[in-house]
Amino acid sequence: MSKKAVHSDSAPAAIGTYSQATVAGNLVFLSGQIPLVPATGTIVEGDFEARAVQVFENLKAVAEAAGATLNDAVKITVFLTDLSNFATVNSVMKRYFEEPYPARAAVGVASLPKDVDVEADAILAI
Fold first, then answer.
1. Is the dihedral of CA 20, 50, 47, 121 positive or negative?
2. Can you list the domains of the chain with their CATH numbers?
3. What is the dihedral of CA 68, 27, 70, 106, to 10 degrees?
4. Which neighbouring-strand residues pair with 27?
5. What's the pLDDT at 1?
6. Is 117 in contact with 85 (CB distance < 8 Å)?
7. Contact (CB, 8 A) for 22 and 65
8. Do residues 47 and 88 touch, judged by C-beta distance below 8 A?
9. Strand pairing of 118-125 and 103-108?
């Protein structure tokens, strides 16, 4: 099986030794996205909801670059530095996914890159 890297200028560039996504067979593995604005490389302004929206906008852009949509997601992992934001994540996710929703894990963590409070990655089946 071969694998192919995916890149989108509509999402933040990878800042390390990874691809924004990798396609292997009919699976697309989206790397974790944080609430960076692609054009500026800065954290989106606003409250937690604005940051969560930016995370899913970034995931959406990478999914589209792979020829998929977020509705192709079979698994999402959300990392939160404050689990009290879980209800907001649920609300934001309803804007990006249709039933049947993907499987999901929400993981409380001590810190995330660039001191953000939310990150998410996904596995898509296309």
1. negative
2. 3-125 (3.30.1330.40)
3. -170
4. 24, 125
5. 75
6. yes
7. no
8. no
9. unpaired
Structure tokens, 74: 């079979």
* Distance of alpha carbon 95 from alpha carbon 99, whole angstroms: 11
Amino acid identity of residue 101, one-letter, is Y
For the stretch 84-100, pLDDT in tens is: 999 999 999 999 999 99
Peptide bond into 38 cis (omega under 30): no
Coil/strand/helix, residue 27: strand
**What's the token pair of residue 12?**
């933040």
Q: Which two tokens stand for residue 38?
A: 């692609």
Cβ–Cβ under 8 Å, residues 67 and 126: yes
Identity of the amino acid at 96: Y
